[in-house]
Fold this protein.
Amino acid sequence: MKAERPRLYGLVAEFSSAETLVVAANRTREAGYRRIDAYSPFPVRGLADAIGFHRSRLPLVVLLGGILGGGGAFFMEWFSATVHYPINAGGRPLNSWPAFIPVTFELTVLGAALAAVLGMIVMNGLPMPYHPLFNVERFGQASRDRFFLCIEARDPQFDGVATKRFLENLNPMGVYEVEP
């Protein structure tokens, strides 16, 4: 019985400069590939647009965390002052909302900060101690002086032979298979 070859995670092309990576990413998007990612040792202007990076939903998560934190704080203070433990001190109303503002503000900031941290961790898929690209021997250069463009096998347009030929036409330093 033949051992089956593991299904590919994708193909990755290595480039020597940021400019060639951006050009290759633009051509890849124009060719119809959508499941692509790029890796570089420093931020590259225009690369996010070239690979089709969309806006993040993190600001919405942070807003909802802030609203929940502030609303929860205000409700907790209102409930304890008016329903659970009403004390008329100095003739002030039980629902003295100006006194609730400092705690409400602090818990709004706390809720937003916690939502930002947890949302970022979840949306980035962390913790990720292993990624298939670590199997590519040359990928260690991505943190030094090389630039990589990966087309994932789950892209609807991915075909092992045709995609490899396409990447080779982008004039990379090399094209490598990424095994899972």
Observations:
- Residues 10-55+131-178 form one domain.
- The chain has two domains: 10-55+131-178, 58-123.
- The beta strands are 10-15, 36-39, 147-152, 174-178.
